[in-house]
Automatic annotation (TrEMBL):
It comes from the Eukaryota. Belongs to the RecA family. RAD51 subfamily. It is found in: Nucleus. GO terms for biological process: DNA strand invasion; double-strand break repair via homologous recombination; reciprocal meiotic recombination; telomere maintenance. GO terms for molecular function: ATP binding; ATP-dependent DNA damage sensor activity; four-way junction DNA binding; single-stranded DNA binding. InterPro entries: HRR_RAD51_Paralog (IPR051988), P-loop_NTPase (IPR027417), Rad51_C (IPR013632), Rad51D_C (IPR047323), RecA_ATP-bd (IPR020588). It comes from Aphis craccivora (Cowpea aphid). Pfam families: Rad51. Its main location: nucleus. This is DNA repair protein RAD51 4. GO terms for cellular component: microtubule organizing center; Rad51B-Rad51C-Rad51D-XRCC2 complex; replication fork. The keyword DNA repair applies. Residues 75-151 form the RecA family profile domain.
């Protein structure tokens, strides 16, 4: 709220009279009846009305019609994951300016899915990828294996690896610093694998430090999304304590509403290893759309 000052009101005497009657801000002034302000300010009705109009004009957000808003919008695009079944349920691919969450139990293939998506994006778009590794388990050998199975030669493999910028971050403070450092990047594509690895160390303490840090991280992620960043985060799924025994995302209720799209992953082991992906939260695509993907030496397909 904007505090009243001399440029907003005619002189110091009027300002002091307003303060004596507990009218300190522009909002306080505008809410008072014009008839009451006449005696306080010693002004005529039309002068008080004009003063209110001036305050409204100076202190309000600028008006914008629908056409201006449409022309000034951030142009968002789809980035295809390169996995046809996944792109189909996502209605084309990853929507720039959004946070995607890959949520599933331990060892269900979340990291393998990240590897496959980032390699497909680099191969098709030639864009750089920021990969934040919080478990210190980024596997260059696995990346090379997947690329060799895609019939890539050594020079191509090296060029692709040079486009993956890996940040090994083992505490939540460095993650916050790293995310702030990405603010100047133009439309970055960011993978965070995984967020619970840094947050779970705060569970069990009486203070709310962990929640404060998650709140800070969410604010920075939302800022990056306004810059048209595409963000994919892996999260651990834990079982509910109720009778349903269903999986739910870790990190708590506060985080539950942060991702724009949540992909819940479960594993299916038949003759070959498979994963089932189900859309459990999305603002753009129908819920409970599912697909089954294979995990093999080529990655996830």
């Amino acid at each position: 709220m904007i505090r009243l000052n001399v440029p907003l009101v005619p002189d110091e005497n009027i300002l002091n009279n307003l303060f004596e009657r507990n009218i300190y801000t522009v909002n306080d002034f505008l809410q008072k009846k014009t008839s009451n302000l006449q005696s306080v300010c010693n002004l005529q009705c039309k002068e008080v009305t004009k003063l209110k109009d001036c305050m409204t004009l100076k202190c309000s957000s600028p008006f914008m019609n629908g056409c201006q808003f449409y022309l000034n919008r951030t142009v968002s695009t789809f980035i295809q994951t390169g996995i046809i079944k996944l792109d189909n349920i996502l209605d084309g691919g990853l929507f720039a300016g959004n946070i995607y969450e890959l949520c599933g139990p331990s060892a269900c293939g979340k990291t393998q899915l990240c590897y496959s998506i980032l390699l497909n994006i680099i191969i098709t778009t030639k864009k750089d990828i920021v990969y934040i590794d919080t478990k210190n388990k980024f596997s260059v050998n696995r990346i090379k294996q997947m690329l060799k199975n895609k019939c890539k030669i050594n020079n191509e493999i090296n060029d692709i690896l040079n486009k993956i910028h890996v940040y090994s971050i083992l505490d939540i403070y460095k993650l916050i610093t790293c995310l702030h450092g990405l603010k100047e990047k133009l439309e970055p594509i960011i993978f965070i694998d995984s967020l619970p690895a840094l947050y779970l160390s705060f569970i069990g303490f009486d203070n709310n430090d962990g929640l404060c840090y998650i709140n800070h991280i969410c604010s920075v992620l939302k800022y990056l999304c306004k810059k048209n960043a595409t963000i994919m985060i892996t999260n651990l799924a834990v079982k509910n304590c109720d009778s349903t025994n269903d999986f739910k995302p870790a990190i708590g209720k506060y985080w539950f509403h942060i991702p724009n799209t949540r992909l819940m992953i479960t594993t299916k082991i038949n003759q070959q290893q498979q994963m089932c992906i189900n859309i459990t939260k999305s603002a753009y695509t129908p819920l409970n759309e599912k697909c089954i993907l294979n995990i093999d030496n080529f990655g996830v397909s």
